[in-house]
Every structure is written in C-alpha cells, then in structure tokens.
Amino acid sequence: MLIQLTGSPSEKAFAEEIITASGQNLLKCLQCGKCSGGCPVAFAVDGGPRRTIALVLAGLKDQALSSELIWYCVGCAICASRCPVDIDFSQVATALVELAEAEGIAPAVRDIQRWDAIFLKLVRDNGRVTEIRAVLVNNLRSGKPLQDVRVGLAMFRQGIIKPGDALPRKAPGQADVARIFANVRRLEQHRWGEFNEDQLLPRLLPGIHRPLL
Known about the structure:
Oligomer: single chain
Largest sheet: 2 strands, antiparallel
Radius of gyration: 19 Å
Low-confidence stretches: 196-213
Strand content: under 5%
Number of strands: 2
Order of helices and strands: HHHHHHHHHHHEE
Helix content: 40-55%
Strand order of the largest sheet: 1-2
Mean pLDDT: 82
C-alpha cells in the first residue's frame, strides 16, 4: 500500500513530539532493521520496531498510535543493544502508548492493557501483587470468571495456594508506594493535561505500560 505524505506541519509536529517525549533521536535511524531482527515480539506485527519508527518519522500519527507493537514491547532493550545509532525503541513505545491514552485512543491490544492496569492497581493499593488475586480480577474483567478454575482447584488441593491468598493484604510501606503513584500522576497531568482514571501513568518498571485504575 502506497502512502502519500504531504509534509504538513501536523506530520512534522507528531514526529517532533515523540522524539522529545521518548528522548530518542529518531532522525538518526538508518532503517537497517537490526532492531526488528532481534526483537522477541516482532513476530506479532509486520515490520517490528523499524516499521513503527518509520511511521513516526513519516508523521503517520493514527497508524503509529494504533500499532500493536507498542503494547507488545517488553522493554528488553535488545533493540537498543543492536542499534548502531543507540535508539531505544522501548522508550519510543512508551511515548506512543502515553500519547494514545492521553488522546483517548483505544489500546490495540486490550488484554495487555487490562492486565497492566490490574497489576499496577494492586501495587498502588496494596504495595504488592498477590498472583491469585491478580488472576481472579483479570478473569472477571475479561468476562471469563471460570477460565482457570481447574488449575486453581488443583493448586488448592496441593496446598500451593490458600483461600486467603485472594484477599487484599497491604504490605509494609504501602503508603510510600501510593505516594509514588500520586507523584507520578501529577507529573503526567503536567505533561499531558487532565486524563481520566482509565488512562495511564508513566512506565514505572521496564516493559510495563501504565494504565491507572
């Protein structure tokens, strides 16, 4: 498919915005494809990081913000280690996800966004993540409450998990963790403006996109 570029101010402004937000000088990109060749999730989309960077440089905002790759990115930094001009695509993916959420664009991979949101909500509210509770909440929100019942019952019979594991338990220092989230939210409001509670926080850990519940 051929794409007609116009060189409009909006196309240039989008590329500049992502370059600034990510801290990565995408203008140095050689389009050599080494990032895509090493990317462990490039199989999920056509072109891998190389194509997504090309979309940004071309000013194709809608296509870049709807990319599945920006959600699949795990922040492993293999792309950065292979790149001859030191571009870290995970930072680009983060900037694209943040902008997409700030503009209310639906996530291209809803399952990943939902799981990330659940994970971070548990961390914020409890200072820790209890695996069984995270799985239960995810199954409920995905509309598949009985999805892991057989596995859960087998683990319960073997004493691997206990009924109380599904209950919320606050870890020592939970208040400090909550303050970190509050501080990050203020930074995001300053950067992107107001956003609702389904929109994201900055990446707190590599490879995690941050919807805030």
